[in-house]
Amino acid sequence: MLEGKVVVVTGAGGGIGRDIALLMAREGASVVVNDLGASLSGEAGDVGAAQRVVNEIAEAGGKAVANTDSVADAQGATRIVGAAVDHFGRIDAVVNNAGILRDRFFHKMSDDEWDAVIKVHLYGPYYVSRAAAVHFKEQQSGSFIHMTSTSGLIGNFGQANYSAAKLGIAALSKSIALDMQKFNVRSNCIAPFAWSRMISSIPTETPEEQARVAKMQQMTPAKIAPLAGYLASDAARDVNAQIFAVRNNEIFLMSQPRPERSVHRSEGWTVASIAEHGMPALRASFYPLERSGDVFTWDPV
């Protein structure tokens, strides 16, 4: 379904990105496999990761090229997109998947931990998407696929930096969709549930934690790839500005913020009347202080 397409996949040296790159190639796309080779926390690491995925694609008869630039650098992002145009003559889809984690409870988080995650998870998709947008506008077509997270859409402990970036991606995607729909360019998000390097540091010290991780390990990165492939294909030409989640064999359409309930006073509000009437009337519709695991409570199927 992707014959003749050229797709950039960032952070594709392992995990979800690798499986997306492999599927794109199996479906006929030429793929730019981008991976800095960094560790989970962002330090320099295995620069050969991208090339190994390229070798896998080539051995299966596909076409791919490796790129090791950082998405967190505007010039690097331009080179990532340039690799697609230079090697394959065009670019049709971008999968913004690259990511790092620097988890810390908010009151203990350092500026460096905040900056590093925001640069990769929010600036990165902006830089790469902005570089690709020029080509998409010129050719009057293109698909952006951004990886968000229920940590941002719903909430999670110890991830203020990651959660803020991932909710920001959802807004970025919507803005791209609105601004570029007239050029036949679409932009969608996927919130993936998958066992990967990004969540492999979850503690397994108690039987409860071990059981939780065992369930998560059922959700392999390969389960995410088909939806990304679909969104990159012409079959998804009418799918735009949506947020999906994939959890093992389930695909969810996620809600987006809309007015939930309202109260009105013709004479206007005072501090006292808000306390006495306004807030009690709204309280029944308050959202509880939930995290992702409190919402997705059933076992993956």
Description:
This protein is of the alpha/beta class and 301 residues long. It has one domain (6-256): Rossmann fold (3-Layer(aba) Sandwich). It contains ten helices and eight strands. It has helices at residues 15-26, 49-59, 74-88, 111-139, 150-153, 160-180, 207-217, 225-232, 271-283, 292-295; strands at 6-9, 30-34, 63-67, 93-96, 142-147, 185-193, 243-247, 250-253. Helix 4 (111-139) links the parallel strand 4 (93-96) and strand 5. The chain starts with 5 loop residues before the first strand and ends in a 6-residue tail after the last helix.
Assigned CATH architecture: 3-Layer(aba) Sandwich
User: What is the tally of helical segments?
Assistant: 10
How much of the sequence lies in strands comes to 5-15%
Uncertain runs: none
Spatially, the strands of the biggest sheet line up as: 3-2-1-4-5-6-7-8
Query: How many β-strands, per DSSP?
Result: 8
Helix coverage percent of residues?
Answer: 40-55%
Question: Helix and strand string, N-terminal first?
Answer: EHEHEHEHEHHEHHEEHH
Radius of gyration: 21 Å
The third-level CATH topology is Rossmann fold
Structural class: alpha/beta
Apparent shape: globular
CATH hierarchy, class: Alpha Beta
* Terminal CA distance: 27 Å
**Average of pLDDT:** 92
Largest sheet: 8 strands, mixed
Protein name: SDR family NAD(P)-dependent oxidoreductase
Organism: Imbroritus primus
